[in-house]
Write a structure and sequence with these properties.
Length: about 1100
């Protein structure tokens, strides 16, 4: 038995004991609320032994307890929502009740009651507490709650959860919170993981979809919760709780519609293309009692269908006649004649129809069907059970991957479908997502002071890709002027793509999640103790055969048209992944996370609460790895630069991770009008598991990947390759020059690409500290609230290139002295594998952020409610790990010297300033009518950007080299350049580059320096979204029936003026203004300026941004009709 097994078994035994005798909760599994407070007499003396009951009036669910010797009571796990009625009785005092109490998800409603002496006769005294009472929840850190009223009344066209989590002041308006990568969030529904845990993008939901908004009762976004029960994130913890049935039958049937006629048709007064687009949503929800006060049900079903440009995979680009792009009219530079020639050659020479090259994506459809059912059972006065099942199935088409492939890759701004390139229809792919989840939760009152919560969840998530193409190679064809052979220039820009999408063949991801949680809560005196343990298991299977049908890259259309003829030459690049016979094609990761924790919530007084606790987690990998001895003995480099080897037969070491936390809340005046709160503590999260599955996928024991890291890496054998439609032709007919490349069995050689994991790797861990103030302005419905949050990375995550050695030369011009690599040997450490073909997942302690928010909120009054927040965020990271696999996450980060040279720069999601506001007003009139008007405002920069060179600047076969900004453009040497038949002299380019710098405030202010990664900001954008609801209601018997008409308009300002609310984008290639045309042996480069396409002309760039001229930036309207009862 190894040490890891012993340690895990010891920890598991401890965990089991905790589950039997105490209680656990895991991964932020907060599904309920709580109510607590103090009971005193008129003199302020605490009353021990008072009887307290809380009744959830819609369902009759009753909770009971008695006060401690300190006069304190608590109901630790109550249904969220309300209203509640809390009643207190004590011998010798009049019975008193407080009504209209609402309990928010994960927060405590504090209800203090003073009893009056009343002899032996009991008398009920009702004290109303407003549903929107400010600061009623006992939060300590930064958190936002989105309740049913906000879900119902605030604007949304997509009806997605992201439309509401953006209400968090710490959000950047997307999926980043506090400047952190969205993949570090944790999203749960009723305590069950509902994550995009595999992490191919930062969308928090699997497949980009999820529950219907109609199924959700409340959403909470936690940034700094100091409750040790909450874990699993280093970004934000997003918890959603589904609706429950009550004693009253309620329901709704609804439909929503949007098409191209409900979208804007002008941008800045100019007509734009408005292709056909349709979005239809149909659904219903129903809840009620099966047995009054005892057993309740809730069901929801919804179907969404989108077609045309309503689908994400819309392609509006058209071929040009003259080879000149006009992005404003969606005309690509790719010539129609070239596309026709390639298509005809594929059909006539190879018997393959690649499909259309224009308008093909506009007829696609995207479908999502969701279903949810929930049962709530009040077993008896002391036990409540909730069981929920939901299922989501979606199918969505996508355009071909933008730029990934064998190195060197096409620059990110010039992808396969863009102003510079076009792709045929068969390069598309479809993704089918199936999500199933079940949750069971039992809340028990063991004694008046001891309660227990048991929670078990299981979810299964599957994402399977398919292609409209028959099996055929993926083909990329470059633009002849951009990919020059044997010149040392590695710039490659795509021009035409055809064939089977390179990441789709056999692509399937399976993810099983199981969590068991049990919480024990004990109240004594002024203390409320929580002790817990939990166990989570995640199991992933990733079948990933990139370039599975083979991949060919050609330098020009002419070279590709020669395939199959006597004049055929070798391709520019080739790649292939093939499985080994008899091996399980799914790369496995089985991850366990046992946790134990204990916490004390100490009410030092009825005004000051201190919460302190500690959580211990022990990440452990439960599956074994098949070792590749050839890799184990491969001499590579460590982070510090010394030679070392890496163990491929083991996962990272098992270690206990401790997360101590302390938080406080002080009611400074004793009337909830001034609250000071804050805390500090450690939070542990997770990484996208795609990075972990990359290791078994790329070890060469399940499959082998032929994917050269550079042109130099394939140079010894590429000359013997010719185009073949059979994906395994070169595997079965391997040239002598490539015998060590096309490995026939797992132990015959080294794979071409490795994605290793450091044995000391740890899951992300941060130290987060916050301080907040809430102040109610006397005599008004307004309050001011503010939060400051500081986060320091303890264990941040990055990828390290382990086959890159230190340079011996540097560039030698102007002020640029970055590393220079005149040949592959200058940066390749071990010649047995490509210099850029070994990535290692490891940790760094670098990284920090600060987020400050201040806001004005308006309590619901006379039909109005609203808020206005300002947020400032500064977040520094060494990398944002952009990429869908380990290799791309390593090579895609803009850098000065090489991808291992990671410095602290602004993160992708760190927008320095953001304004966010909401305002809603509802008025009833004419006895049967009600109108609601709601507005959402977001003001922020549209993102961050980096300035880099177009292509490889310093000769290491990787682009993303950060731009050096000369003090004057005259310090650079330019060469004449001809693009699309337009010649630009060296002098013209030098003058244009000087004007380019001068016209850009960021570049002009940083002359003589390197541009920073994410150093500049995209332009500021003000946008308003609007919602109108018209209710027509009447009472039939005792029930209210409502017909509701709705109109949601995103970017409503654009409806008033086509100049308002227009988003901008980077002109393709404009933030990559220079490319290296040549370089001397001692590192002195000659440049050409990167020409761009503007207004149908080939010009030198003078600005970076342009207005987006599609319906994605105009106003869009969603109309709906709903019946409620």
């Amino acid at each position: 038995m190894n040490g890891k097994s012993l340690l895990f078994r010891a920890f598991a035994a401890t965990l089991l004991l905790c589950c039997l005798f105490v209680s656990p909760e895991s991964m932020g599994q907060v599904t309920t609320s709580s109510i607590n407070g103090f009971i005193t007499d008129a003199a302020g003396e605490f009353l021990p032994g008072a009887t307290v009951t809380a009744v959830h009036e819609p369902s009759g669910t009753t909770y009971g307890t008695v006060t401690t010797e300190a006069g304190r009571y608590t109901f630790p796990s109550v249904r969220i929502g309300g209203p509640y009625k809390v009643t207190v009785s004590y011998v010798g005092f009049s019975e008193q009740s407080r009504t209209n109490i609402f309990a928010e998800l994960g927060l405590a409603a504090s209800v203090n009651i003073t009893l009056q002496e009343g002899g032996t006769q009991l008398e009920e005294v009702l004290i109303s507490s407003s549903a929107g009472q400010m600061f009623n929840g006992e939060r300590t850190g930064a958190a936002s709650s989105i309740n049913t009223e906000q879900l119902r009344t605030l604007p949304t066209v997509t009806r997605s959860i992201s439309d509401f989590t953006r209400l968090s002041p710490q959000s950047n308006g997307g999926n980043s919170f506090g400047g952190r990568d969205g993949r570090y969030n944790n999203f749960q529904v009723d305590g069950a993981n509902f994550n995009n845990g595999f992490g191919l993008n930062d969308n928090p939901l699997p497949g980009g979809g999820g529950l219907s908004i109609d199924a959700i009762e409340e959403i909470q976004v936690n940034i700094a919760p100091y409750d040790v029960r909450q874990s699993g994130f280093s970004g934000a913890g997003i918890n959603a709780v589904t609706r429950s049935g009550t004693n009253k039958f309620t329901g709704s049937a609804y439909g929503f519609f949007n098409n191209q006629d409900l979208q804007g048709k002008k941008v800045n007064g100019d007509d734009i293309t408005r292709p056909d687009a349709t979005s239809q949503t149909l659904g219903f929800r129903l809840g009620g009692p099966l047995i009054k006060n005892k057993l309740f049900f809730f069901v929801n079903a919804e179907h969404i269908k989108k077609t045309g440009s309503g689908v994400g995979a819309v392609n509006l680009w058209k071929a040009s006649e003259n080879g000149v792009a006009d992005p404003d009219r969606n005309i690509s530079r790719t010539r129609r004649a070239d596309l026709e020639a390639v298509r005809n050659h594929l059909i006539n020479q190879w018997g393959y129809d690649p499909g259309a090259y224009e308008n093909y994506a506009n007829d696609n459809s995207e479908k999502t069907t969701s279903f949810l059912a929930r049962i709530d059972w009040n077993i008896n006065a002391k036990n409540k059970l909730a069981v929920r099942y939901n299922q989501v199935e979606s199918s969505a088409p996508s355009l071909v991957n933008a730029n990934s492939g064998a190195n060197p890759r096409t620059p990110f701004e010039t992808g396969r479908v863009s102003s510079l390139s076009m792709a045929f229809a068969n390069t598309m792919y479809n993704t089918k997502n199936i999500v199933r989840s079940i949750t069971a939760e039992l809340n028990s009152e063991l004694t008046p002071r001891l309660s227990n919560q048991f929670l078990a969840t299981y979810s299964r998530i599957q994402a399977t890709r398919s292609s409209p193409s028959r099996e055929f190679p993926m083909i990329d064809i470059g633009f002849a002027g951009d990919s020059l052979r044997n010149t040392g220039v590695t710039t490659y820009q795509n021009y035409i793509s055809a064939g089977y999408e390179l990441f789709t063949y056999g692509n399937d991801v399976l993810n099983d999640n199981f969590i068991i949680t049990n919480n024990l809560n004990y109240a004594v005196g002024r203390h409320n103790f929580t002790a817990g343990a939990s166990f989570e298991m995640q199991k992933f299977g990733n079948r990933y055969l990139r370039n599975g049908t083979s991949y060919y890259r050609y330098a020009s259309v002419e070279e590709f048209l020669a395939t199959g003829t006597p004049n055929e030459g070798a391709p520019l690049q080739f790649a292939l992944t093939y499985p080994y016979e008899g091996q399980d094609p799914y790369a496995p990761v089985k991850y366990g996370l046992p946790s134990i924790y204990i916490q004390d919530k100490f009410d030092i007084s009825d005004r000051f609460t201190l919460t302190a606790g500690i959580r211990a987690e022990m990440p452990v990998f439960l599956n074994s790895l098949t070792r590749n001895a050839s890799v184990d003995t491969l001499q590579l480099l460590g982070v510090g630069g010394g030679m070392r080897t890496y163990d491929t037969g083991s996962w990272p070491k098992t270690r206990v991770m401790l997360s101590p936390r302390v938080g406080f809340r002080w009611d400074a005046k004793g009337d909830n009008s001034l609250i000071l709160r804050g805390g500090t503590g450690i939070f542990a999260g997770r990484v996208p598991f795609v990075w972990l599955t990359n290791m078994p996928s790329n070890l060469g024991v399940i499959q082998n990947t032929v994917e050269p890291g550079s042109y130099a890496a394939s140079a010894p054998w590429i000359g013997d390759i010719r185009f073949q439609p059979d994906k395994y032709y070169w595997l079965n007919n391997t040239p002598a020059s490539a015998q060590n490349v096309f490995i026939k069995n797992p132990r015959a050689g080294l794979p071409s690409t490795l994605a290793l994991v450091d044995e000391n790797f740890k899951m992300p861990q941060i130290w987060r500290t916050s301080f907040g103030v809430d102040y109610k302005i006397p005599g008004t419905p307004f309050a001011i609230t503010g939060d400051v949050i500081y986060t320091k990375d303890i264990q941040a995550v990055y990828q390290f290139g382990a086959n890159r050695k230190a340079p011996t030369q540097r560039m030698n011009y102007s002020g640029d002295d970055r590393e220079f690599y005149p040949n592959t040997g200058a940066y390749q450490y071990n010649s047995k594998i490509g210099a850029n073909s070994v990535s290692v997942l490891t940790n760094t302690t670098k990284g920090h952020s600060i987020n400050a928010t201040i806001g004005l909120t308006m309590q619901a009054r006379r039909g109005f409610y609203g808020s206005l927040y300002y947020s400032h965020t500064s977040a520094k990271t060494t990398t944002d790990n952009n990429g869908s696999n380990a290799s791309s996450a390593w090579g895609a980060t803009p850098n000065i010297n090489n991808p291992n040279d990671l410095r602290l720069y602004s993160s992708d999601g760190a927008l320095p300033h953001r304004l966010i506001g909401t305002l809603s007003y509802r008025i009833e009139y004419a006895n049967h009518l009600a109108s609601t008007f709601s507005l959402y405002y977001n003001g922020a920069n549209q993102g961050r950007l980096s300035y880099t060179y177009n292509g490889d600047m310093n000769g290491d076969a990787i682009g993303a080299d950060i731009l050096y900004i000369p003090r004057n453009a005259s310090e650079l040497t330019f060469a004449n350049s001809t693009v699309n038949g337009v010649t630009f002299t060296a002098e013209q380019q030098r003058d244009a580059f000087e004007a380019y710098i001068k016209g850009n405030s960021y570049l002009n202010e940083n002359r003589g320096k390197y541009a920073a990664r994410n150093g500049d900001l995209m332009p500021w954008l003000n946008r308003f979204d609007f919602k109108f609801l018209q209710d027509i209601f009447t009472n039939i018997g005792k029930s209210k029936h409502t017909l509701q008409l709705s109109v949601d308009v995103i970017n409503v300002g654009n409806l008033l003026s086509s100049k308002w609310g227009v988003r901008q984008e980077i002109i393709s290639g404009a933030n990559m203004p220079l490319r290296r045309a040549s370089v001397t042996p001692d590192g002195v480069p000659t440049f050409t300026m990167n020409a761009v396409q503007v207004g149908g002309k080939t010009v030198l760039p003078t600005s970076v941004f342009r207005d987006i001229t599609t319906t994605s930036t105009t106003w869009s309207m969603l109309v709906g009709v709903r019946y409620l009862f």
